[in-house]
């Protein structure tokens, strides 16, 4: 008898931290947003799967992996768009079938969070869907518009605050190099991004994450067209580090519980620290990278 199979719509993309222990569960296909830099979902027609089919996959995973599942990540690009009742049903069923499950997470666009009431978010968190990965990309509204992110800094700050209040761990990503090598635009991207991170500061002690990725230019995307037509000039590794330095420098010294990471495969220099404690250490490491370019990851080792 052939073993049962989980449903996947390739290509599958997930956060690096969901790589090892997580069951990747297809809740939605593609993404309901179309950002200019995004590769994995550009050719997928967006769809939300039936809760019945998602629950069948939760059962199939039990047959395949017994009681080994400790984390579930809901695919694809913004599974958090689903209705609160459906997310709660999937989450509760996941914990019922997988007794060792400790966390369920999903990608969420700021609008997917803001459309839900504080009460609904609290119920979602209580059901065990307690972490979201949100693409911030930049705090600069002009740049958010250019990359067709369909949100702005105010909405992004609101989404983070709603997550903090509801008990959903907020993990935001920013993209270095997104503004290109124009000095003035890179400076605006850096300063506005730092300002936005400051506005995301939770009122009470809370663990949350900010991760910096470095812009990749995926083939066949609108952002590749911008590069080919010389509208966007990619940054050098040196410029990327200067931009990263400016962001960290402008982040306030008293951020509550924010873990900063730039250890993604797309980055030139791996970094990790708690911002309120390690800011100076992070800046020193960046300065060393700026002074010793031979210590940076070579271009051909970078990847998404
Ligand atoms: C797969 S996307 C899903 C984001 C989610 N739909 C949202 O709107 O927040 C996850 C993240 O990967 C990063 N990413 C995607 N394409 C990228 C690229 N070409 N270069 C660098 N980072 C990229 C962005 O930070 C993006 O938010």
Give a description of the structure:
- Keywords: Iron, Iron-sulfur, Metal-binding, S-adenosyl-L-methionine.
- Helices cover 38% and strands 17% of the residues.
- With 304 residues, it is of the alpha/beta class.
- The protein has one domain: TIM Barrel (Alpha-Beta Barrel), CATH 3.20.20.70.
- It has an 8-stranded mixed sheet with strand order 1-4-5-6-7-8-9-10. The chain has a two-stranded antiparallel ribbon with strand order 2-3.
- Strand 7 (169-176), helix 7 and strand 8 form a beta-alpha-beta unit.
- It is globular and about 60 Å long.
- Bound molecules: S-adenosylmethionine (SAM).
- Residues 13, 31, 33, 37-38, 40, 77-78, 107, 109, 134-135, 137, 173, 175, 213, 215-216, 218, 266, 304 line the site of S-adenosylmethionine (SAM).
Features:
alpha/beta, 304 residues, metal-binding, TIM Barrel, iron-sulfur, iron, rSAM, Aldolase_TIM, binds S-adenosylmethionine
Write the layout of secondary structure elements.
Elements: E1 22-26, E2 28-29, E3 47-48, H1 51-65, E4 71-75, H2 84-97, E5 103-108, H3 110-114, H4 118-126, E6 129-137, H5 141-146, H6 153-166, E7 169-176, H7 183-199, E8 208-214, H8 222-228, H9 237-249, E9 258-261, E10 272-274, H10 275-291
Parallel strand pairs: 1-4, 4-5, 5-6, 6-7, 7-8, 8-9
Antiparallel strand pairs: 2-3, 9-10
- As residue ranges, the low-confidence spans are none
- Number of helical segments with 4 or more residues: 10
Which structural class do you get from the secondary structure elements?
alpha/beta
The helicity comes to 25-40%
According to CATH, the homologous superfamily is: Aldolase class I
- Reading the helices and strands in chain order gives EEEHEHEHHEHHEHEHHEEH
Q: Would you tell me which CATH topology applies?
A: TIM Barrel
Straight-line distance between termini: 37 Å
Question: What portion of the residues fall into strands of 2 or more residues?
Answer: 15-25%
**Average pLDDT:** 94
Using only CA atoms, what is the Rg? 19 Å
Strand neighbour order, sheet with most strands: 1-4-5-6-7-8-9-10
Per CATH, the class reads Alpha Beta
List the domain count as a whole number.
1
């Amino acid at each position: 008898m052939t073993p049962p199979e989980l449903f996947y719509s390739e290509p599958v993309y997930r956060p690096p931290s969901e790589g090892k222990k997580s069951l990747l569960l297809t809740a939605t296909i593609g993404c309901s947003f179309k950002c200019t830099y995004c590769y994995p979902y550009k050719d997928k027609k967006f769809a939300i799967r039936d809760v019945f089919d998602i629950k069948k996959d939760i059962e199939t995973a039990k047959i395949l992996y017994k009681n080994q599942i400790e984390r579930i990540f809901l695919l694809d690009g913004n599974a958090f768009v689903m209705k609160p009742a459906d997310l709660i049903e999937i989450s509760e069923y996941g914990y019922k079938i997988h007794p060792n499950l400790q966390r369920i997470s999903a990608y969420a666009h700021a609008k997917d969070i803001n459309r839900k009431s504080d009460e609904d978010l609290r119920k979602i968190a209580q059901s065990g869907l307690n972490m979201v990965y949100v693409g911030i990309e930049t705090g600069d509204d002009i740049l958010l518009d250019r990359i067709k992110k369909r949100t702005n800094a105010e909405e992004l700050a609101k989404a983070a605050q709603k997550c903090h209040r509801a008990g959903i761990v907020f993990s935001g990503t920013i993209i270095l190099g997104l503004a290109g090598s124009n000095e003035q635009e890179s400076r605006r991207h850096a300063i506005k991004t730092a300002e936005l991170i400051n506005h995301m500061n939770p009122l009470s002690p809370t663990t949350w994450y900010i991760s910096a990725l470095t812009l990749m230019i995926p083939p066949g995307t609108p952002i590749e067209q911008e590069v080919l037509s010389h509208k966007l000039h990619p940054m050098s590794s040196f410029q990327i580090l200067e931009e990263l330095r400016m962001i960290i420098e402008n982040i306030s010294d008293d951020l509550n519980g924010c873990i900063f990471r730039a250890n993604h495969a797309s980055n030139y220099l791996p970094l990790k620290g708690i911002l309120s404690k390690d800011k100076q250490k992070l800046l020193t490491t960046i300065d060393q990278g700026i002074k010793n370019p031979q210590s940076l990851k070579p271009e051909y080792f970078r990847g998404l």
